[in-house]
């Protein structure tokens, strides 16, 4: 598999990053990518926000923007997959080119701008798979030209309630002007009030309560993190996802591409996102679930997120460089790490390096 991927990656890297991404989606849709599931390990399974996850590794939002291949992603070994970000109306996003590979840094810069086919197209696809097993989260956002952005998030809850396993409200992309303003205290309070009220109403109709997560940025100040923790504590939110892409370019070796506008993801984001994760864990306490994202490229980096306070982890950009065998490799690697630790469940290792990550400069 690694040799085949090396050949495939060389071929894909002949194309620009966005074309290559489209080809990878097409390959998953047609079954050209073999399944790479690891053997189920009960030590990796845990219940988070009322959902039983078979393992803690998920595909982050941004890859399967239009809910085209969630089941194919699950077949690669992911314990869950998150689709989107989805906006009520279809939108083209920002002008191309808008994705850039920083190969020496194993990083990606994107300024896509919530390009997607809209709610209706995704709902049709998710409705067609609604009787299948597997955890599929729906990441919701707002159209760039929305007169009422909070209403767009509410529309996402209402539209996808019958087909989602959980929701993520994405207020942290740097590529939609003004979106991160929703992280401010008063705006966030208004957003969560509206979104969670819609969740309650739809839950009563459906007879089930779906978890809602909030995805935040890694570029928050200490005061900004304080504000988010305070607002979250006042609402019946089910968890945080820490974090989205960063505007920082610290430590990059590719000075030319580093000048491109957009959010940076991949290996260089690991330390920053993990330090913010630890700070949010410290602020929200031990009970609120947190999904850690940013720079996960191995079993060791996935485990480090958990040691820093994450219950679950997600990846995306590092798969650009490591290929479709990565999730299965990480899950198997986590089992080997648990062999060394001799613990009954991976949950026992959460927070074990919290103090270290609290000391890392953001």
From TrEMBL:
SUPFAM superfamilies: FMN-linked oxidoreductases. Belongs to the dihydroorotate dehydrogenase family. Type 2 subfamily. InterPro entries: Aldolase_TIM, DHO_dehydrogenase, Dihydroorotate_DH_2, Dihydroorotate_DH_cat, Dihydroorotate_DH_CS. Monomer. Keywords: Cell membrane, Flavoprotein, FMN, Membrane, Oxidoreductase, Pyrimidine biosynthesis. It is found in: Cell membrane; Membrane. Gene3D superfamilies: Aldolase class I. The active site is at residue 173. Signal peptide: none annotated. One of its GO terms (cellular component) is cytoplasm. Residues 44-338 form the Dihydroorotate dehydrogenase catalytic domain. One of its GO terms (biological process) is 'de novo' UMP biosynthetic process. FMN binds at residues 61-65, 85, 139, 170, 215, 243, 266, 295, 316-317. Binds 1 FMN per subunit. It is a peripheral membrane protein. It catalyses: (S)-dihydroorotate + a quinone = orotate + a quinol. Its main location: membrane. PROSITE patterns: DHODEHASE_1, DHODEHASE_2. One of its GO terms (molecular function) is dihydroorotate dehydrogenase (quinone) activity. Catalyzes the conversion of dihydroorotate to orotate with quinone as electron acceptor. HAMAP family: DHO_dh_type2. Its cofactor is FMN. This is Dihydroorotate dehydrogenase (quinone). CDD domains: DHOD_2_like. Its EC number is 1.3.5.2. Substrate binds at residues 65, 110-114, 170, 175, 244-245.
